[in-house]
Predict the 3D structure of the following.
Amino acid sequence: MIIGNNLPNIPWQEKPAGCTDVIWRYSENPIIDRHAIPSANSVFNSAVIAKDGAFVGVFRSDNKAMEQHLFLGKSADALHWDIEPDPLPLYNEKGEQTGVACGYDPRVCLIDDRYYVTWCNQFEGNCGPTIGVAYSYDFKKFIQLQNAFLPFNRNGVLFPRKINGKYMMLSRPSDNGHTPFGDIYLSESPDMEHWGYHHHVMNHGGWAWTKIGAGPIPIEIDEGWLLIFHGVGTTCNGLIYSVGACILDKDEPWKVKYRCKPFLLHPETLYECVGDVPNVCFPCATLTDAATGRIAIYYGAADTVVALAFARVDELVSYIKANAE
Ligand code: BMA
C-alpha cells in the first residue's frame, strides 16, 4: 500500500491484455517531443509533481548548442505539457537573481511546504558535476542553496520527508565523464545544506554491471520505501540504461530489504533505442495514487524525449519480493 495522497487524476492506462510485465508503457509514447521548447534539440530525463489539482515539472532540455538547462512546465493532465521557453531562473536567499539553472537530470520533491529541485549541477569554477539544490514555495521563484556535495556526484534524490529528524538524500559518487562505475549512497542533513553521516546503500551488479543510480523520489509504502532506479551495463556497442526496483528499510533507508534481480523496463521500442544516446530508459519521477495503488513513471528515452509507463504498487512489490536476490 502506498502511504501518500490520493491523486485520482494521474495518467493511467490498464495493462494491455497478454502483457506479462509489471511495468508497461503508455500507448501514446513519447509524451514530450524533442522540440517541445523552441530552442530544444531534446527534452528528456525530467521530473513532474502534483500541485493544486494539476501538475508541474522541471524539464531537462539540451539546446542546439548542446547546452543543458532546466525549464519549468505545467500541465492539467500530466500528459500535455506547457514548458517555459526560457531556462529556470535561480535566486539567492536575498532574493537576487543569480543566473539560470544549468545542468541536467532534475528530480522534484515536496517536503513540508517546499518544493525542492535537485539536479546535476556544475561545481563552481567548472570543477565537475555535483548535486545542485534549490527550493520554492510556489513553484515560481526558486532559491538556490549550497551544492550538497563535492564533485563528482550525480543522481541526487531526496526522500519526501525527514527520517529520524534528518533530511535524507541518495546520490551516486562518480567522475568527470561518462563514469564507468557507481553505487548508490545515502547522506543525512539537519538543514538541507550540511550533508554527512554517509551510508552505502547498493552496489552495481547483475544486469546493471557497470553502475546504478537512484531514479524517482522513493515512494513510501507499508513496509519501507519503494525505490525505482536506473542501472547501466556496458556492451561492445555502448551503454544500456534500464530500470530496476528495490525496497529500502523505512527507518534506516540505507538498508536494502529486497532488490529485484531482473530489470523491469529495458530499451525495446524505437523511441528508447534510437535517439541522441541510443538504448536509454532513465526514470526521474513518478505520480502515485494511494487509493488505487497506481504509479505513473516518467522516464527519458534515448536522451531525446520523455515517455511514460505504469505499474500497480501491489503487483510491483510482490514481484520485487518474489524475485529478490
Ligand atoms: C545521465 C546523464 C546523461 C546521460 C544519461 C542517460 O546520467 O549523464 O547526459 O546521457 O545519464 O540518460
User: Anything to note?
Assistant: The chain has one domain: 24-322.
